[in-house]
Design a protein that fits this description.
29% of the residues lie in helices and 21% in strands. The protein is α/β, with parallel strands linked by helices.
Length: 188
């Protein structure tokens, strides 16, 4: 199975590339690659700036239609993935919990999207997607409907409530993304 790491954001609120923030002795992206390589056969980076990430020595896939945000990155990753289902995670989510990912993976049969939901809402940047999502995503991109969840009504979605994940990750730490210097300092 494939893991797709979305690294194409502008990091405006953070003020620097979030993929290269430090997580102990590694950067966020190096930490994610290490963790995800234990769970997945293939790892793809979804990024438009190939030169920035070429040092990581893993496949880099640019957006099919640039400027369409995470939705465009997910689409490009799914189109290039070798597997039917792929796990998608944003580069600013360093608290990878293997048990949570494996639990979500167990639920994919019969579903095109398996997505956690917390009190903050759906967490589509930490979810599984099937190749059946490609056509609906492309339609949304053509219609300028660029929220990830805009294509969900067109596919079979399994929402995983945080109560379901509580035994695996009670504080829901694995679903935390860090967008500002303050959030980063709070955790590191």
């Amino acid at each position: 199975m494939t893991a797709i790491i979305l690294v194409g954001g502008k990091s405006l609120r953070m003020g620097q590339n979030k993929a290269f923030l430090r997580c102990g002795d590694k950067t966020f992206i190096e930490h994610q690659i290490d963790k995800l390589s234990k769970l997945f056969d293939e790892i793809i980076l979804s990024a438009n700036d190939v030169n920035t990430y070429s040092i990581l020595n893993i496949p880099i896939v640019p957006d099919i239609t640039p400027g369409k945000g995470p939705l465009g990155g997910i689409c490009a990753g799914l189109m290039h993935a070798k597997s039917f289902h792929s796990f998608v995670i944003a580069c600013d989510m360093p608290f990878i919990n293997e048990s949570v990912i494996l639990y979500l993976k167990e639920l994919i049969n019969g579903f095109d999207v398996v997505v956690p939901q917390t009190s903050r809402g759906l967490e589509p940047m930490h979810a599984f997607y099937s190749k059946n999502c490609i056509a609906p995503i492309r339609r949304c991109i053509e219609e300028e409907k660029l929220r990830i969840i805009d294509f969900f009504p067109s596919v079979n979605v399994r929402i995983v409530d945080e109560k379901e994940l509580a035994e695996l990750d009670a504080p829901m730490q694995s679903l935390v993304n860090l967008n500002t210097p303050g959030e980063y300092k709070k955790h590191f």
